[in-house]
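Record 1 of the preview.
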Amino acid sequence: MNEVGEDVRAVEATLFASAEPLNAAEIAEHVGPDVDVAEALSILEEQYRGRGIELVERGKRWHFQTAPDLAHILRREREDAKKLSRAAVETLAIVAYHEPVSRAEIEAIRGVQISKGTLDVLMEAGWVRPAGRREAPGRPLTYATTVGFLTHFGLQSRRDLPGLDDLKAAGLLDPIDAALEQLGQLELESEGEEH
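->
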């Protein structure tokens, strides 16, 4: 393929990969100063004219969009993603790290009762499932994570969950917990110095 063809491909790839529309200068930053961005855009605009995807310019910024006459095909009813409550996030973490786990065990770890709705929300999301009954008095139902949980969070298995050190390094632990832990270590160090 000739150099012009390669330049057009580079501009096309840049536009496809961009999450936002780009102006010519931004495209040039990606493809290099030797590429005639204006010529490549003109060629692409012509190549995509009348197709299912079109290259369009809006406010001197370029992007690909669905052809207006096909937009109705792509409209779908969708549910708005709802943010999980803190209780649901904590419950999900407990199930993931301690599965199979019963409601009483979740409550013991959290230190507070959980509403029935919390586990229902996690099951509706497809992240938690009933995992049988514990061989204990009352035979409590236990819960575990699902394949959907692993898929949503990009995990191959539960072994891929971050460990305590990983969470600390990422700054994801509650700062109060980290401060209390550090305070506890300082007290232990000072006690050691006194002896």
